[in-house]
Every structure is written in structure tokens, then in C-alpha cells.
Amino acid sequence: MKLPLCNIVTIDPNIRQLNNVTQLVLMGNRIQGLNAVTKLTALVVLDLSHNLIESLPESISDLTNLEKLYVQHNNLSELPDTIGELSKLMHLMIEYNRLQTLPASIGNLLGLTRLNCSGNAIQELPEEIGKLGKLKGLLCGYNHLELLPNSILDLSQLCCMSFGNNKLRELPDGLSKLRCLTELDVSSNRLTEIPEDIVNIPLLLRLDLRDNEVTSLPYHIGNLIRLSTLDVSDNDLRHLPYSIGTLERLETLLVHGNDKLNVLPDSIGNLAHLKRIEFGEPLLYPKIRDDTWIVNYCQQHKDFTTRIGRFRNMWNIIRLPYVAAHTKHPLFEMIPIEIIHIITLYVISDPCIPLMKGVVSERPHKRAKTCV
Question: CA angle, corner 322, sides to 316 and 323, nearest 5?
Fold first, then answer.
């Protein structure tokens, strides 16, 4: 039964007569209470998202066949302990409510594969969360977490873990135990260092460390051979480890907003699959000379020189389709027409390049554009 966006305020008590209904969708209404719903014991899917619900009844445990519960975007301030009795539950969506804690009984949901509690006011996660052995997705962004329980390392099936926009000051040692992890987001926290063993997560594809206070990356970050996206923007990095050049599958590298980072290692020239790189003013400004160009027959060069400020031999990466430079320095007016030799270049963004206007569009390579 689906009744979304119907301006429903109360649920008719007679709904209990529909005892064979397996799916009930009441999203986008104005419902506040739902005692009658718990009589529908055949329910497999219950969607009450985007309502005005302030609490779930203790009798929620009567929904013994429930596999998916969606109560995101309500006014929930707590979850009943009996939620841990939903033994068949696989998806629990409780994001964007007013929760400050999760009950310890959540650890009894042994079949849970996806938990989203983002956008609440949760200050800590219960140690019992480590019992969720089948959990694949754990999304806890936009909360007030300052510390993660060590039991989180027991989530051996976890593929995606997001703790962005919290107050974390450190990550637990032992992240390499998360052998199935492919995405890790700890952006917009208060981290100053990254545990060395993070480089031993074998399947990691995406690592988001942006907007922290990190001063250095693990020396052996190049061990993350499957990594395709690395975002370390808006930190306090002073250098990048040389081993970054062994990230042979890296496609996106974001390092802008690190004001003390004024050199990139030569090894970056080995990133043959890089498609997008963003860097900031410290890397662009020092010692610019008229006779040093950002591109000089890029297909012939094999080094990404540490003298990045001089733009010499910069683009060995001939498949690079997107370059963004987060600076408004007028040096970009100096970029020559020779840049069009990067035939797959898609856009150089912010600022625009006056010298390039009207040039690229005349070339037969239709993929090459500039952003004006």
C-alpha cells in the first residue's frame, strides 16, 4: 500500500484489518503517531520518512517480519530498546532526526546490512555496534561524534563508512581489519594525523580526508593500489609522500587549500590514469618566468617536476581531461596557446584564461574546451 504525499495527519485505526499487507509507504505526510501500524505484523517494508513522528512505540517489536524501516526526516529524539527485537531487519534509515544516542540493543540486529544515522546530534556510538557482523554501509555524518568505539573494527563486512562533519580528533588504530572497505569519508572533522595502517586496507577506492588539520599523510600511502579518489584538500599538509606516485589507478587528486604545500613530488608524473587534479596558490605562484610554460609539448615530457611553480614539464599525464586551479592570480593570463596540445583537456576552471578565448573552439578536437 502506497499513500505518499497525501497530507495524512492520523492513521485510521481500522488499518489493522489489512493484516496481509507487506509494504506500507506513508512518506511525506504529517503523521505524528503510529500505534495502529504495529498491528500489521506481515509488514516487510515500512516507509514513514518525512513526517512529524516524535517517537516510535515500544510495540514496534511486533513487526517481526520487518526487513526495511525508513523513518528519516522526522522528529525522533530516541529509539525504543525494543527496536533490537526486529531480528529480520536489514535496512535502518534514521537520518535527520533529533537523536542524541543509539540504544545498546541495536547490536542485536544481526541481519542489519545498512545503517544511516546521519544528521542527528549523536555524541557517541554504543560499543555493541561492533556486533553487526553483516553491516556493509555505516553512515554517521553530520553528528557530534568525538571518538569512535574500537568495536567498529569488528565490522568485517563493511564496505562504506562515512563520518564526515563530526568532531573526531583521531581514528582508531587497526583500520586495516576492515578488509572489505572501499569508501572512507572522515571529512570535516578535527583530525591531525592519519593512522599508518590505513594504507593496508586492500580494497579502498575512495578516501576523503578534506577539511581537517592533517599535517602529513602516511609514508606508504602508495600501498593503496586500488585507490581512485584521494581528497586531502583544506588541511595543513606541507608535503606529499613520494609513494603517492605508485597509486597507478588514481583518477582524482584534490590538494587545494593546503597553504604550506608548495612542492609536489616528481613521482606524480607516474599517475597515468589521473583525470582531475586541483591545487592551490602555493603550488602555482613561486618564481614564475615568462619562458616557462604550463605545457610544452606535453606528450613528450616524462616528469612532474618538484619545481611546480615554474610549470616546467608539468603534464606527462596526457589523458588529463580536467584541471582546476583554485587561484585568482593573474599569472593565468600568461598561459600560452600551446596548452591546446593536451587534446583531451576538458576544462581549466576558475579563473578563466583570456589568452585562450576563441582558440580551442577552432581546433578539430571537439572534446577540448575552456570554461569562461
Answer: 70
